[in-house]
Design a protein that fits this description.
There is one protein chain. The chain folds into 3 domains: about 80 residues, MurE/MurF, N-terminal domain (Udp-n-acetylmuramoylalanyl-d-glutamate--2,6- Diaminopimelate Ligase, Chain: A, domain 1); about 200 residues, Mur-like, catalytic domain (UDP-N-acetylmuramoyl-L-alanine:D-glutamate ligase); about 140 residues, Protein-Tyrosine Phosphatase, Chain A. The protein has 15 helices and 21 strands. It has a 6-stranded parallel beta sheet with strand order 8-9-7-10-11-12, sandwiched between helices. Strands 16-17-21-18-19-20 form a 6-stranded mixed beta sheet, sandwiched between helices. Helix 4 runs parallel beside helix 9. It starts with a strand and ends with a helix. The structure holds ligand IGM. Ligand IGM binds next to helix 5 and helix 11.
Length: about 450
Amino acid sequence: MNLTLQEIARVIGAKNDTNLLSDLPINKIEFDSRLIEKGDLFIPLKGLRDGHDFIDLAIEKGAVVTLSEKDLVDVPYLLVDDCLVALQTLASYYIDKTGVDVIAVTGSNGKTTTKDMIFDLLATTYPTYKTQGNYNNEIGLPYTILSMPKDTQKLVLEMGQDHLGDIALLSEIARPKLAAITLIGEAHLEFFGTRQKIAQGKMQLTKGMALDSLLLIPNDAIVDEFIPQGQTVKRFGQGGELYLTNLVEEKESLRFRVNFLDEELSIPVTGKYNATNAMIAAYIALEEGISQEKIISALAHLNLTKNRTEWKKASNGADILSDVYNANPTAMRLILETFANIPKNEAGRKLVVLADMKELGPTSQALHESMIDSLSPDDFDQIYLYGQDIKGLFDLAAAKFPQGTVHYFVKNDQQDDFEQLVATIVAELDRDDQILLKGSNSMNLAKIVDVLENKS
Ligand code: IGM
């Protein structure tokens, strides 16, 4: 990253005397102490644990400076009121400083796919970077901005919303030049109440957009009352300015035409909505000056993200919430809260499968055990725990839940109960159930998701 310590102190308005700190170039920023390397800036955030507890560790690992909300002794620090606000302020400054073009994508479904498609098309021509994993919130988005390679010219950012106002904040941080809302769906109805509120929230994407910028939105009457005055708006879908024709669904691909290109397009994915996502990506690529040939060939060879937080369908109809990406206590707690808040299916149960989070160090057992606060028999019906460090959580959960509802499966150097875990879940999961799977990538939960989807 292309920032120095004194520059950062100035931008975030450090309240302490930083004159004695040398103006070193900062290598990168991290809020997870496990990822700190020599020359980094540590940003302590409040997750499940307060990041301030990990400042010493971060410095030991080579951080040259840390942000802090309280005064520290013997540690180089920048004093701020709120570390999250400082992170966001710094990210916004970095957008200006680098002059990178931001392309923003939001939508209830398909935003990740669309983001990946836009990335693949722009990357044919420009040094391009995109949101990794589910880093699409008020922490992940500024982190993504500050983590882009120095030569990045186009930055494709995914923006998520849990509450009204989320997208406005993200848009004001990133100030997109181009943006798309893929779909106004029903996600998070529990927080928003109505589809109209969801539409309103997504349309706040324009809050940070300059007047000469372009916004693509679905041709869905629900957004009519939120159309902005300033920016150019193009609507896609039936009756809109951008639309699909001649859609042919094949076993593993889709072929179609779009009204703004004169050759047929083909993408190696199924699901009609993906043709719409590809149309959005193609239009943005065209706006960014990419040739029709490059667009066609990049779409034919798409490279889509797998294995992030996503809803899937088991072959028996059960709903799967698969999250095998972020392996840290905060992310695990957040997904448990999200899963707890989702309305149950009538006659259906909620099953939770948690596996070890790796590399949590000497306090790993305790960090796993602290998940007990997010596990309540009021919310969940069956709990399956798999791994070594999660064993302590099993004892706590078994004491808290009705008998026979908490199950433990071993994984250590001598023994691995993975096959039993898979067999138990396959036998137990009914079509009306909902199941959450969460753990470190190396715990192989993705395999269980595949089995449930009947792909292996
Ligand atoms: O949900 S997140 O993963 N997220 C990231 C950004 O994009 C969207 C999703 C997330 C969020 Cl929102 C916030 C935080 Cl603060 C993750 C974190 C986070 O990294 N939390 C972490 C911890 C907590 N609580 S990382 C981490 C801890 C690593 N730390 C333990 C606590 C390692 C460690 C273990 C033992 C030690 O002695 C020292 C450090």
